[in-house]
Amino acid sequence: MSNCGPRPKRPMSAFLMWMSSNGRKHIKAKHPEISVQDVSVKGGEMWRAMVDEDKVVWQEAARTAMDEYKEKLEQWNTLQEQSKVCLSPTYAHNYEAQLSSRFSKTNQKSTLFVYDCKDETMAPICRKCFSKIKCFH
Fold first, then answer.
1. Which residues are CB-contacts of 69 (< 8 A; sequence separation ≥ 6)?
2. Of residues 1, 52, 34, the one with CA closest to residue 14
3. Cα dihedral sign, 86-89-93-96
């Protein structure tokens, strides 16, 4: 499991946005005894019968929500790729490269490396954020 949080959820379609905001309420007001399945069927019939000009509002909202979702998903995928090469701060001392004897008297810290299983190499990482990408620490 990665530490970049749960995958973003897909947004609702225009039809589902309409159903959740006022379609379901409108149907239940007219037919209070109707079942959940029949509410969905009736909502589908009403949506198909609706004029395109009335649908535009919901379609635009759905398009905006989908654009936001795609941005969040792209960011999440980037974090997911970066976190495949991760390291727990608890075990950082196990991955420290030893300084050679000629640098033993300096204040230089040893470099922290992590094994990257994608290209099977050892890569240096940041000691503060444990990120393989360049950071400002």
1. 8, 9, 10, 11
2. 52
3. positive
Range from 25-34, 57-66, 115-124, 128-137 carrying the lowest mean pLDDT: 128-137
Question: How much is the pTM?
Answer: 0.56
Beta pairing partners, 116: 121
What are the residue ranges spanned by the domains of the chain?
Answer: 14-87
Contact 5, 89 (CB under 8 A): no
Phi/psi for 30 (5° steps) reads -80, -35
Residue 40 backbone dihedrals phi, psi, to 5 degrees:
-65, -40
Summarised one tens digit per residue, pLDDT across range 78-122 is: 888 776 654 444 444 554 554 445 555 555 566 677 777 777 777
| Tokens at 37, concatenated | 């399945």
H or E stretch at 45: helix 36-49
CA–CA dist 135, 137 (Å, integer): 6
27: exposed, middle or buried (Cβ count in 10 Å: 0-12, 13-18, 19+): buried
